[in-house]
Amino acid sequence: MTNGIRNHQVGDKVETYFLIKTSTKGTASNGKPFLTLQLCDHTGEIEAKLWGCSPEDEQAFCSQVIVHLSGEVSEYRGRRQMKIQSIRPTTAMDQVKVADFIRSAPISPDDMLDEITQYIFEMKNANIQRITRHLMKKHQTAFLQSPAATKNHHEFVSGLAYHVVSMLKIARSLVELYPSLDSDLLYAGVILHDLGKVRELSGPIDTQYTLEGKLIGHISIMVTEVAQAAEELKIDSEEVLILQHLIASHHGKGEWGSPKVPVVKEAEVLHLIDNIDAKINMMDRALETVQPGEFSERVMALDHRSFINHVSISLL
Amino acid sequence: MTNGIRNHQVGDKVETYFLIKTSTKGTASNGKPFLTLQLCDHTGEIEAKLWGCSPEDEQAFCSQVIVHLSGEVSEYRGRRQMKIQSIRPTTAMDQVKVADFIRSAPISPDDMLDEITQYIFEMKNANIQRITRHLMKKHQTAFLQSPAATKNHHEFVSGLAYHVVSMLKIARSLVELYPSLDSDLLYAGVILHDLGKVRELSGPIDTQYTLEGKLIGHISIMVTEVAQAAEELKIDSEEVLILQHLIASHHGKGEWGSPKVPVVKEAEVLHLIDNIDAKINMMDRALETVQPGEFSERVMALDHRSFINHVSISLL
Amino acid sequence: MTNGIRNHQVGDKVETYFLIKTSTKGTASNGKPFLTLQLCDHTGEIEAKLWGCSPEDEQAFCSQVIVHLSGEVSEYRGRRQMKIQSIRPTTAMDQVKVADFIRSAPISPDDMLDEITQYIFEMKNANIQRITRHLMKKHQTAFLQSPAATKNHHEFVSGLAYHVVSMLKIARSLVELYPSLDSDLLYAGVILHDLGKVRELSGPIDTQYTLEGKLIGHISIMVTEVAQAAEELKIDSEEVLILQHLIASHHGKGEWGSPKVPVVKEAEVLHLIDNIDAKINMMDRALETVQPGEFSERVMALDHRSFINHVSISLL
Amino acid sequence: MTNGIRNHQVGDKVETYFLIKTSTKGTASNGKPFLTLQLCDHTGEIEAKLWGCSPEDEQAFCSQVIVHLSGEVSEYRGRRQMKIQSIRPTTAMDQVKVADFIRSAPISPDDMLDEITQYIFEMKNANIQRITRHLMKKHQTAFLQSPAATKNHHEFVSGLAYHVVSMLKIARSLVELYPSLDSDLLYAGVILHDLGKVRELSGPIDTQYTLEGKLIGHISIMVTEVAQAAEELKIDSEEVLILQHLIASHHGKGEWGSPKVPVVKEAEVLHLIDNIDAKINMMDRALETVQPGEFSERVMALDHRSFINHVSISLL
Amino acid sequence: MTNGIRNHQVGDKVETYFLIKTSTKGTASNGKPFLTLQLCDHTGEIEAKLWGCSPEDEQAFCSQVIVHLSGEVSEYRGRRQMKIQSIRPTTAMDQVKVADFIRSAPISPDDMLDEITQYIFEMKNANIQRITRHLMKKHQTAFLQSPAATKNHHEFVSGLAYHVVSMLKIARSLVELYPSLDSDLLYAGVILHDLGKVRELSGPIDTQYTLEGKLIGHISIMVTEVAQAAEELKIDSEEVLILQHLIASHHGKGEWGSPKVPVVKEAEVLHLIDNIDAKINMMDRALETVQPGEFSERVMALDHRSFINHVSISLL
Amino acid sequence: MTNGIRNHQVGDKVETYFLIKTSTKGTASNGKPFLTLQLCDHTGEIEAKLWGCSPEDEQAFCSQVIVHLSGEVSEYRGRRQMKIQSIRPTTAMDQVKVADFIRSAPISPDDMLDEITQYIFEMKNANIQRITRHLMKKHQTAFLQSPAATKNHHEFVSGLAYHVVSMLKIARSLVELYPSLDSDLLYAGVILHDLGKVRELSGPIDTQYTLEGKLIGHISIMVTEVAQAAEELKIDSEEVLILQHLIASHHGKGEWGSPKVPVVKEAEVLHLIDNIDAKINMMDRALETVQPGEFSERVMALDHRSFINHVSISLL
């Protein structure tokens, strides 16, 4: 096999397997139908056009199908594009499976669960601990599979857990640096803040917003779940309210989707940590395929900025 | 008795009862303490200064006390002010009670409850009807007393119920005009949208935000209550989600406190009706003490605009 | 004939008449010219491509021509598109006329005029009544034909009158609910607020902005016309000024085109009613071709929101 | 007499005449009334407090009265204040008149009129020339007296004419530099753009907005007047429309009060010239009483900036 | 030769020379490569498509090559496009040179230098004069060639010098009109404000931002250069700081790229003059190819406005 | 001595030493002068009024004087105020010194310098290391004394160094978590980003902006200093440019004072770290004197939010 799409250069000849992520039919200016295939492997994605496709092709080359393809990496409007020479759907004979073509977190779900469990174990406040453990347990399976978003950052298998684990590490270093921070509250906030995404998003592959996601969103979902957990665990104290506030306010501002702005110190810090991990991840993603000295594509969620892949200063 | 504070002019001599709404201590430039009293009756409010007050005065003239006062209406920086000639706390002998001094809705709570009940009765969808009836019943007593806000509009006893009844009337006329509107959904949205204020606000007198109000707010409170009601009533259908969406989105935009913008037609219409009733109420309030041909004070919540009390055109 | 474009599904075979709304020439990537035809009937619109067109085709298939067409409804980038199998211009023999292909208000112009006349008749202030009647009479013919906009809402024959009639009905219900509202002023404001559109827009078919519309706009046009009407009728009183204010401020904010923000209560209410009728109309338009459970295209003028066509709750 | 308020320093003893611009009654913390007098001469203004005033004082020291005063310039919260030692109203014996105490343009009205007339005379397009001359003639007396604003810039007698003359000079230099500019249009725009202020403002002393100014504003007033002038002069050509556009758009943006943004080159240039003259005038005004090396008070209309009175570079 | 691209109408046959400004490869829907050529002469630009190009064509028709072309001006999506009938690269035999095809300032570099030198000569403050002369001398060659921007305004050979000369003329007329303005400071600010563009931009042909331009920009570059010049010339006085402030603040606002807003009067005026010259230039550019009575394309940098090419009023 | 101002409650009798931070003269409504004294010790500040002060008092009780005072902590408009019973300036006999009354960083300057030196020592890129060391050395004395701001955060002696040390610790933990980050660049950015404040601010006591601070600001100052250091050290490589970019962009947005937005990953991270340390410091400062369960005053720089001092969750 190859070293993955991400590392291919324009001009490379390719003969390998890909997963079709999405397949969209169009009509060319000569009136004939064609398919726009978004192909992926575990390292990245590339677009390909299948010109003059038959109705059978439409059936065969649809989303989630693994194909074998010969082609060449070309360029179109500044983006790499795969020029198809031949393409065929795979069969059992090819011995390939979908999981091999999907990007996932660099740490295994089990290891991440262990790490999160350790943070819960360290909590000193029993109410916070019980609510956090209860909700993690309730959604554990989905949580360990879920991406953290449909695009922009952590949009891969187990992306949500990976986002949480990274944030916990930053949280710990801030708790050490600023002793006035309440660690229980901050860790619980990190673990629960995006947990509602297991109901907001459709799952790790071809991720879409669910109806619930579109109508009420992961913040309202999780504020409600905390209330229900507290009821079930018969906890009725101020901690519940503060925990709900952390979740409700973690987007930081009304225009970013939070019904309340942070008025608890740990809520503001939760928002800042979320911001850091998401932004570094977005920049890493944008720079991944950029040559040294060149600028990335514009990143919508970072004010349409384009980032330079500068020379590695520390290694000069 | 007089015809109320609202109708007093500068220069009027006054000898009557007032309720102290708030009492704040200050220090004058001669170093002596004084009290700033916010006095009210059922028609409005006026400020008074009690200069050179003793520690006993501080005790005697505090919030919620009814006083008997002789004085004169003067003017300070364009606002009316009560100049105190004599003031004393009342006793049982005076036979006055707090309720007589508080502004309340022009319709009785019982009549408003009947009217709302009628709208619930008319609902055709059983799930919507049961959830609405369940939540109204649960909070009925508080709902019929609660103001709709701490200031700006409907900030009086039963203001919340009065706001809902007015909105229901507008809703009915729109349902008649636009047949595509779903009446059940719109009526339920109107009845429930602000119900969380019974937990967000402290009650009808000297209304404050509760801790819960400050940390999560009436929108998140009510989205959660709908979920809990549905669970209790064993209703698990799309209506629940849409009802939660109506509540979540009724402020119209993220920067106005809604975690989701309206994407259901009735949610947008709910927001528009809420807007109309609140704004007309605010303008009426601002114009209440303005002489014909004059402009009101600036209304913060209406983009700091000042409104003219124009001549009554239809009566010319 | 068929039941109209709006009700066609992808895959439907079509053999019927259409009106060409616009025809735009392009060059395909093979260097050959083609026409993009925007076809319409009285229920809606659909795009079609005429590939490899001759100079004669360009002449024949231009705007305002009625054609007979055989084809199939296909889909392109999520939008329905008409795939042309054969197309020909019609002749007198076909016995079709343009009026049959144009969308118009669901009430007849005469009925709408009667209704508006009734509101004018009810006015108690003679000056307001005379100005309103004078201007309605002056522009009556154009007013009854004019759309209310070039796109977004009420963009059809008699759309302006239909918009006014709907607003009058809302105005009446608000006047009943809020007795402090001045009905004469509000009704006159509703009737006149957009009347300048008869000079701002080019007319009901293929509606464009006139030079006057682009350079000064319907608000300035109408503020001027009220002044001229008052002069002609020898009315010189405060009502004229307030009426001009209602027109000038009815967009609500400077950034929405109003040279003055509303400072008269009825001006604010006029703006709110205008808003309601326009927004409900836009949502109805957006949802018109959306399947139950699906989301509409994004509506530019409603903050780019996409609306769900939810199940009809009241009918469940 | 002295060299004027503007040049007084803290600590200066003063014995001279002043005009009372405004007189406002207040109540001191000892319960006694006092007057806040805004005193002015032709160079500037200063505030004074008249403590413990009698009802007779209130009558005597009201707006537009000239007083004779002995006192000392002191400082309060960073602003100069006049400490009154003795004060008395003047009589005929004092031989002082209001006109001597009012700030006015540095050029005489007659000279300014001559200058403007010259620009009108130079116009080559008869329609533009006739409309401009007609409107200047109609409002000539008020125009030559009127200030250009109630505060911020050119808020003095003949300020409007002075603003126009300055702008005409800038306009001429731009016309010389950029030959593509249409001089007739630009000069007419400059002369007419703010002429509506003669109806928007109450006049040169204690300038207020008129009802007409508040309800429709000088832009709508003037757009209407151009239409009426054209009608009267029987001119019906595109020039009228473009002239109205220049007036309507001269504030540059909707949020700054223009119902249309400039889409004619001369309209944009008119806005830019207006901007320059207003801003330089505001900065000069703010810096007028500032010591070298110090910063001025914040100027609201210039984004709350504070300007430095730097050393005179060219003279070093 | 012809009278230039700018003056060609749709339908014109063309047989002439062009310079290829940019050449971009694409793939047509039939899978074949094509070139999009941006062609220019000294009057303007036009796009052309070279369909079905060979690898040799790609080599031959690249940026900076002069070609000889036969074709016809057509229209595509409202823009003119050159339809190529035949095209060939030129050789020495054609006797054409790049300089003939490039737009440049209407005044010669030498004349502009003379004019700027005159302003420097007039300066009375020796420090300001020496710094200005030093920096002009240092960058003289690049300055006289450089465009003032990559697009929008003065994006041609010597555009920067032309922009400076125009601004100096406006500055002089303002200095005459407002005697409080410090001419030395204003002239020096005009001459130096954009001088950093000689390092920010790559040069006059196919202008790009340099790495330095992207990372720190012409404002920071020039603030630094003034500090270095002052050090070198051993000038250590307040003038240096004020000069740096003029450069730093000349974009007027933080969101337009200035690290400080203007707090020196001449800094604000510098910003206003810069604005005027840039905006008039942009409008002239936009209107250059527009027929009388028509509207231009939308100008991004002028709030997306479209300007009308109105009839020449002064010539009617 | 006492345990400091910060810990005093309303009603406490106080007899101790204070430093006068600022002293401002006012005139009471009885016409007599008074002094508003801002008193401080090493824990916080409190305001006091000295009524009826003599000219000698004005001389004696000025900024930077240590006084001995008997008084009582009272409350005025929700803020604590010191009611003076007796006050006298101190003499050598009192054996008190200014340094004892000033707030400073909780770590000694020497320890902070050691820590920063260690980070410089670890740098692998010689150019980055040399520039950082050069500039730290150049400004070392001022840097170790300087506050980081005039208010809001780190506004105390050595506040700048303390801010840098905290940020370095966060930087190190992020470098460990995200291996793609270039540590040399990030550490150098942290150390240098605010170093220009030693020229922007007047020093640790009664901190003001210098003229240089107001006219060009610490960002432009430092971008220039890096250029000058590189010149002196004969370093001419891309690292210099990137380092300047980090400094120029560290406020994150144009409207927050950065002439360039971050386009280098480490620049964005530098901005995020700066944000975290500043915001946590501001919240700690705001909550410092707030009782458990109460809300703080509104914090201007944190969107006017008020923060709750919630119960210590981890200790429940």
Automatic annotation (TrEMBL), chains A, B, C, D, E, F:
<dbReference type="InterPro" id="IPR004365">
    <property type="entry name" value="NA-bd_OB_tRNA"/>
</dbReference>
<protein>
    <submittedName>
        <fullName>3'-&gt;5' exoribonuclease Bsu YhaM</fullName>
    </submittedName>
</protein>
<dbReference type="InterPro" id="IPR006674">
    <property type="entry name" value="HD_domain"/>
</dbReference>
<keyword id="KW-0540">Nuclease</keyword>
<dbReference type="GO" id="GO:0004527">
    <property type="term" value="F:exonuclease activity"/>
</dbReference>
<dbReference type="InterPro" id="IPR012340">
    <property type="entry name" value="NA-bd_OB-fold"/>
</dbReference>
<dbReference type="InterPro" id="IPR050798">
    <property type="entry name" value="YhaM_exoribonuc/phosphodiest"/>
</dbReference>
<dbReference type="InterPro" id="IPR003607">
    <property type="entry name" value="HD/PDEase_dom"/>
</dbReference>
<dbReference type="GO" id="GO:0003676">
    <property type="term" value="F:nucleic acid binding"/>
</dbReference>
<dbReference type="Pfam" id="PF01336">
    <property type="entry name" value="tRNA_anti-codon"/>
</dbReference>
<dbReference type="Pfam" id="PF01966">
    <property type="entry name" value="HD"/>
</dbReference>
<keyword id="KW-0378">Hydrolase</keyword>
<dbReference type="GO" id="GO:0031125">
    <property type="term" value="P:rRNA 3'-end processing"/>
</dbReference>
<keyword id="KW-0269">Exonuclease</keyword>
<feature type="domain" description="HD">
    <location>
        <begin position="163"/>
        <end position="279"/>
    </location>
</feature>
